[in-house]
Amino acid sequence: MTPLRQRMLDDMRMRNLAPGTQDHYVRAVARFAKHFNRSPDELGPEHVREYLLHLIRVGASWSLYNVVRGGILFFYRVTLNRKDWAFGEIACAKNRPHLPVVLSREEVNQFLDAAPDLRHRAILSLIYATGLRVSEVAALAVGDIDSQRMVVRVGHGKGDKDRYVMLSPKILELLRTYWRAYQPKDWLFVGEAPGRHLNTRTVQLACRDAAQAAGLTKVVTPHVLRHTFATHLLEGGTNLRTIQVLLGHRSLQTTARYLYVSMEAVTGTVSPFDRLDAAVTSPAPAAEVNRDARALRWPT
User: Fold this and answer.
1) Could you give the residue numbers annotated as active site?
2) In 31, 85, 202, 234, which residue has its Cα 20 to 30 A from 255's Cα atom?
3) Boundaries of each Tyr recombinase domain copy (predicted)?
């Protein structure tokens, strides 16, 4: 590891940036330097601008653009202390929000049934049962499962905040079956490296494989399971404030987007047309209906 990379990692740790953010920022600077085949401390604002325009030309998403921009600017402003450079002109892209992908209950059943083994089924079922982020479920300790209080303790979640989520009796039964089979000691889901917890990439690949085995056309990721958890809670009558607490959202506005994907919230809303006076909506004479049907057929 180069001294520059180590210094950047130290700077991010001192500011308590999330491990995922640290990884994204370091990768962004590495790819930026590789693009010009030069050390990043030899590059300047015009190189940053040129590289970001390159990302736009090759079709990178706006969310990736913003992550790369954030990583490069952190490197120059903090690690190299070049605060006098005119980086303010390199604007943050407006990221158009998209509705999250959500699975139906039938699709969730298909998906979990297609998990290749008990370990993967326990991991994926736990995400759907609790709405945990992939980094949170991967780093769970055995002691975080509190069967006395029927809660799961989520330590050091996003923003370094701790919280509790519910532990359902069915998921507890599955976790006990998993524990008897694998006998984890410290981490609930042990990684390949000794003494380390599961890698988030392993969970993401397990999601992909289970979705393909289930024959689902939707792209399923751990975050899709989290979206599905929240949407199904909303459709079951749980209020938004409770869902916000369970998900660990800072803003209620973030949680409110699930109103847009809840089918029960949509189909359960009465149209104002249905409240019109009966005389307005009374059927037309049969002859008139037949004439109109011949003139305009409903699209199939």
Assistant:
1) 133, 158, 223, 226, 249, 258
2) 202
3) 98-271
